[in-house]
Amino acid sequence: AIAARLAKAGYKVTVLEKNDFTGGRCSLIHHEGYRFDQGPSLLLLPQLFHETFRDLDTTIADSGVDLLRCQDVNYNVWFHDGELFKHSSDLATMKVEVERWEGKEGFARYLSWMREAHTHYEVSVTGVLHRNFTSLFNLARPSLLKHVVALHPLESIYARASRYFWTERLRRVFTFAVMYMGIYCDSPGVTSVTLSFVNKSPRYGNDYPGTNFAGHCGGEQFYVNPVNGEETSLIMNCDAIKTDIRYCQSIGKKVLLSIGG
Length: 261
Prior knowledge:
It is a single chain. By secondary structure, this protein is an alpha+beta fold. The chain has 2 domains: 1-70 and 206-261, FAD/NAD(P)-binding domain (3-Layer(bba) Sandwich); 72-203, no CATH class. 30% of the residues lie in helices and 15% in strands. It has helices at 2-8, 46-55, 91-102, 106-129, 142-145, 148-151, 157-162, 168-173, 194-198; strands at residues 13-16, 28-31, 34-37, 67-69, 75-78, 84-87, 207-209, 232-235, 248-251, 254-257. The strands form 5 sheets. Strands 1-8 form a two-stranded parallel sheet. Strands 2-3 form a two-stranded antiparallel sheet. The longest helix has 24 residues, at 106-129. The model is unreliable at 216-226 and 240-261 (pLDDT under 50).
C-alpha cells in the first residue's frame, strides 16, 4: 500500500522482495493439487482496504476482487468436550449463542462489551492507524491522551472480558484472537479489545475474498500494473540487504535514504 501510494504521488518506486514470489503472508502454497492461503483467510477492517483502493483511483470490485460477506456464521469455536460456539456478526445469532452459555442477561452484557470494544476501535483507527508517529512526543497528543482512561491501558483483554462474561468459555471465546498479535490474553494492551469488535460488528463483520488473498485478480496485480505515477518496478528473489536508514528527506520527486553497511 505504501509503495502504491508513493508511485501514485509521482515517486519512482522499487519494491524489493526476498522471495521468488510476491504476497508474503498473502501468498499461496500449492500441494498435491490443493491450494492453501499462507496467511489469514478472512478480511477484517474492509473499509481500510476500500480506502486504499480509492486512493489509487480504483475500487476493489473494479480490480477483480469479489468480497463475500460471512452472513450467518464466521467460524466455529470448538471446545475439548465437543461443544461449540458459533461466532457470527449477526446479532440474532449471537443472542442465541451468548444466552446459551451466559443466560438471559448475558446478551445485554455482550452488548456492553461491544460498546466498549467500539470505543477501542474508533480510537485505534482515528488516533493511531491514521496518524504518523515520528517521535515520542506524538504519543502526547491531546486527542489521544483524552482517551487513555477509556482504553484501560493497564488491564488485559481477559480482565476486561471477565467484567462482562461470567463463564470461562466465553471469556476465552472473546479473547483468544489476540494470539494473532503475538500476545497472551492476560497481557495489558490498549488495542487488543478492538479485535473483538471488528470481526463481530454487524457494520464491519468478516469478508472473504472469493478470489483468495493471492489470486491473480487480487493485490498481486499492483506489482505489474501502473498506478498513474512514476515507473514502478519489482525485484524478486534478491539477496539480503543491510540498510541503516538514518533519515528520509523528500526533495522534488525523490526520496533520499542513507544506506550503510
